[in-house]
Amino acid sequence: MMQSRPCGFDVFSNVSVLLDETGKWRMDLLNQNFTEAEAAAIKKLPHNTRRGGDRWAWSLTSHGGFSVKTAYHVIHSSNPRLSFDEEHSQLWKKIWRMKTLPSTKHFVWRVAKDILPTGEALKRRGVDIDGMCGMCGEEAETGIHAIIGCSSVHPFWSISGLTLVTEIDAEVGFKEWLIMAMAQWGSKDLELFAIAAQKVWERRNKARFGEGIGDISGLWERTMGVWHELNGDTRPRDEQWDKDECARWQPPSWRFLKLNVDASYKEGSTNRTGCIIRDYTGRCLAAQTKRYVMDTTVDIMEALAVFDGLEMATRMSISDIIVEGDSLRVFNLLNGKGTDNTRDANKVAHILAYDHVDFLDDISSSLVWLEDYPPLICNALRSDLLI
């Protein structure tokens, strides 16, 4: 049996100590520290005449480059007690517990389940399309590519400050990638990523349908804005509602829906109406804000708010409805066919009627939501249901 000679080098020595100034092997050191067979094998290795610097290499791949797939297996094998089912169960729990809009949670769930209508997914379902990414044109468009791997979004993720790997292994799906990423993230990082990922996808959809998408760098500022709206009200103190001091919104009987209305009035300025329809559980079915440019009075605006709300209910074929607002005079004039309440119990309609929700342009006269409500509305809805 052939044994190696005792080596005189430190275990952390570099290969460069065996090379001379021209980059060739130093035969004296090879013969001194290795057996004849080992020295002969080393001499056959090509030497680097360019004498480039040392670099980091990933030992788990043959090419030395980092691989998400091998990293995933390392993390998984380092915690053998965590079964496959437990790992994915924890993923779903973290997604549904995020302090984000319901649409954001649902979006992340869809990406993780690989059911986004990406080019590759549609092609797999028999749709006659190219399947390549329309943003970069370099790779097939999968969910993980569209959100993370596309070269068009790399600059965006770089400025986000989130710890994540954008070099994607073709054999690792978004679900496995997210499990690895969440091992390094706190709850805020996960929420910011989820909001940002949804905005990246929305931007992709706009580009797909030929709409203007603008500079991607602005997405992060909007992401932070949404997160702050959901996790801390930035409005002045006199505009905030203290849940301990406010009259609470009361749900209707299960047989009815409730329509809350409000209006804003400022002489010589654009005025608004706001209305929202909810069921007995407090679930929002529809919300609307409408603006008016005309000479009017505060009572007329309050009456228009009732009219706009009932018109929206009629379009939705809703008849059994209770109308609630905060203008006693207007409701008395309407022959008592409705109730009046304090502004604190009418806060969501109040938000819609005032300038808390922005119009997308100067042309539109109304905005209607049937889902994906703005964060400010979601916060108010949530506080109405807190006990």
TrEMBL record:
InterPro entries: RNase_H-like_dom_plant, RNase_H-like_EbsB-rel, RNaseH-like_sf, RNaseH_domain, RNaseH_sf, RVT-Znf
One Pfam family of this chain: RVT_3
Top-level taxonomic group: Eukaryota
Signal peptide interval: none
CDD domains hit by this protein: RNase_H_like
Domain RNase H type-1: 260-347
Molecular function GO terms recorded: nucleic acid binding; RNA-DNA hybrid ribonuclease activity
Domain Reverse transcriptase zinc-binding: from-to ranges: 66-157
PANTHER family in the cross-refs: BNAC02G40300D PROTEIN, POLYNUCLEOTIDYL TRANSFERASE, RIBONUCLEASE H-LIKE SUPERFAMILY PROTEIN
Protein name: Reverse transcriptase zinc-binding domain-containing protein
Organism: Senna tora
